[in-house]
Amino acid sequence: MKKLVRLIVCILFTFYSAEAAKKIEGYIHHNDNRKEKVTFLIPFGFLSSEPSYVNLQRQIKYLVGKEKVALRADDVKEISFTIKGQEIRMRSVYDNLQQGWSSGSFIFLKLEVDGPVSLYHYYSTTTTPGVYTGGMMTGGTTNTTDRLVVQRDNGELIRPRTMFFRKDMAQFFADCPELVKKIDDRVLVKSDLEIIVIEYNTKCL
């Protein structure tokens, strides 16, 4: 009976995984500024309505005729597509943060704010191993973490530390004393990072 249950779970998982990639039209923004319209195969999380951004950071597949072609961040400047009326832009950025598999390579990061200072979502995963208990092996778990990172022009990615947010951001935005004061006075806090970046781009340059 247990074997039958495991078999059914595996079949259902395979079925949903196969259905997880959706055909969505979008654009490849090449390094020579060409803009190419293609049909992407966007991966979605298991039973999720949101794209699997952590997988998109590694590569994205698109169709050339009936052939699937893998596109890596090293190859282009940016990719973009629209879901539910919202444009999604994922830019090729060098990963100096060196988190797991992406260490020392270019990855696609979901762009939240564009400008002299850009704001991105940075996804990383941690996996715990399975445990053998009661004569059965239980599967491990994979957790995805979404953190916001900032980048000035084409410089390094900076991930504000939770405990030292004010210190890190005061240093990063040191050329805008009025903004730094709002951060120091807790008028703007960590949850306001998008507002902080927008304010810097519009008022501090």
Note down, in words, how this protein is organized.
The chain is an alpha+beta fold and 205 residues long. Helix content is 24%, strand content 41%. It is built from 5 helices and 12 strands. It has helices at 2-19, 53-56, 165-172, 177-184, 193-203, and strands at residues 21-29, 35-43, 59-64, 67-72, 78-83, 86-94, 106-113, 117-128, 131-133, 136-138, 141-152, 157-158. The chain has a 10-stranded antiparallel sheet with strand order 4-3-2-1-5-6-7-8-11-12. Helix 3 runs antiparallel to helix 4. The longest helix is centred in the N-terminal third of the chain and has 18 residues, at 2-19. The protein is globular, with a radius of gyration of 20 Å. The model is unreliable at 7-19 (pLDDT under 50).
How would you briefly describe this protein structure?
This protein has 205 residues and is α+β, with helices and mostly antiparallel strands. 24% of the residues lie in helices and 41% in strands.
